[in-house]
Amino acid sequence: MANPSAVCNGHLHHQKQNNNLLKSGIYKKNGITKGMKKNGVSNGTLYKKTFIEHFEQAPMYVAVLTFLGFGVGTVFGYLRDFMRAWGLEKRNIAAEREQQKDFVPLYQDFENFYTRNLYMRIRDNWNRPICSVPGPQFDLMERVTDDYNWTFRFTGRTIKNVINMGSYNYLGFAETDVNALKTVTIELEKYGTGICSTRQEMGTLDKHVELEKLVAKFLGVEDAMVFGMGFATNSMNIPALVGKGCLILSDELNHTSLVLGARLSGATIRIFKHNNMQSLEKLLRDAIIYGQPRSRRAWRKIIILVEGIYSMEGSIVRLPELVSLKKKYKAYLYLDEAHSIGAVGATGRGVVEYFGMSPDDVDVLMGTFTKSFGAAGGYIAGRKDLVDFLRTHSHSAVYATSMCPPVAEQIIRAMKCLMGLDGTTQGLQRVRQLGKNTRYFRRRLHEMGFIIYGNDDSPVVPLLLYMPGKIGAFARRMLEKNIGVVVVGFPATPIAESRARFCVSAAHTREMLDTVLNALDELGDFLQLKYSRYSKSSHPELYEETRLEFED
Questions:
Q1: DSSP state for residue 93 in the 8-state scheme
Q2: Measured distance CA(459)–CA(502) in Å, rounded
Q3: Which candidate among 142, 163, 348, 422 keeps its CA 20 to 30 Å from the CA of 113?
């Protein structure tokens, strides 16, 4: 289980109080030391604003009961498998035919054990079909099961006005307002729905060129390239940037698209602990000293893969420290801003703006349009020579279908709104409203006694449930209160850290958030989910002792 952590800029005060917090296990000692100096420059100057993250450890009894719950479920799973094998219980799972017994099996019984015996019990909480725009509220198609979640049937009834706490609609651009979508409608009538070609053949339109210029201007970089799929932006472009003889240093909690891209590249991959700069610096130092295995030759490239906001933890990358290490060891930095672009920063320009840094500090800026912009696809931005290289060598540019024009126009519309190019301040108001909603929602959950993970400014808010039996109970009871939530468990999270993940939106009204918070307060008491042992500190600084040294 993760320990809590926090980093902030400022001088040391209330040292005695904080030492007690460290001993209690509230904060994790894995950040930079405040006050440590090199050449007369304090490391504290790396951060220009308070940076607070929470990873509180649950009481021991919660961990014991969580593993006990999985143990009981496993025992009964084996019992039911025994009954299925002897015909005492109906076998609903896919199985090999007798005629194929000499073939290599398509279905591995043991590998599917978790799916058929644990996941099936709570399967009704996922893949629920909605039948409206995923705005702050949506309509849900009601379904029921007659065989304990093996199959579902629709009742024909629609559950109306469910408060949406699960979609990545951070700025509220997932909308159906006719006036807002007027330009999108015009582009749909002009270009149709599809391109039917790749970017390198006949799939580059004037809308793509316009969008790429706008993205580069928005981010403050030389050039940008857009792609039709966010996942493929990572998985298909990382192999073009690195290959055999290169070293990838990847955060242990990176998204699957980054992991897949790294594996497809053929480069050597090493993992560092989440947001832990000591762990990263050790890998960087070893890479410089020892070089490649066997040959001991220097690595062709060393590239660090990180995310802006981590979608399961709600934590924000420690970019100032990361950039300092990257410069010190002459490595490259690849920053995935899928969840942070639009969601953080004074004007929604992501973690680079959030920390008051220059876009030139990051070698490869990647992001998606699927969250804050209410569209689809992704981008890679940076120096012009980088983008020109990808236009030729990117697998996505060569083989993938281009982004459809109406989607491109939706992104242009949203981005112009953020930049104020539509003649209004609506975009800036959305960014500010998201920040207000995020801080309010997180503060209230802290006060209620829930354990939540992540940064105070992150709109991704994981609320820890821990025990497997509470995953299904939580989601079902919230839906009964007309609130749609996302619950996540093993293997998407560590086995003892099942959680509900809330995504706050600028489109949420205070009344909606209060409705959700009141329901959570009641349900937290009913399911006994209020595990936190600490109230929010009035002095949330972290006082640490590390050996990191940064160059000026």
A1: S
A2: 8
A3: 142
To which residue do tokens 């939530």 refer?
485
Q: Which CATH architecture has domain 53-90+101-164+426-533?
A: Alpha-Beta Complex (3.90)
Radius of gyration of the chain (CA): 25
Of the options 3.40.190.10, 3.40.640.10, 3.90.600.10, 3.20.20.70, the CATH number for the domain spanning 178-419: 3.40.640.10
Task: Express each pLDDT in 161-187 by its tens digit.
Answer: 999 999 999 999 999 988 889 999 999
Buried b (16+ CB within 10 A) or exposed e, 255-284: bebbbbbbeebebbbebbbbbbbbbbbebb
Tell me how far apart the alpha carbons of residues 339 and 350 are, in angstroms, rounded to a whole number: 9
pLDDT, tens digit, 9 for 90 and up, residues 443-470: 999 999 999 999 999 999 999 999 999 9
Q: Specify the pTM.
A: 0.87
Domain limits, the chain: 53-90+101-164+426-533, 178-419
Cβ neighbourhood burial of 511 (10 Å; 0-12, 13-18, 19+):
exposed
**Residue in 241, 305, 248 with CA at minimum distance from that of residue 274:** 305
Comparing 53-90+101-164+426-533 with 178-419, is the CATH topology the same? no
Rounded to the nearest 10 degrees, the angle between the axes of helix 510-527 and helix 468-480 is 140
Query: Per residue in 399-413, pLDDT tens?
Result: 999 999 999 999 999
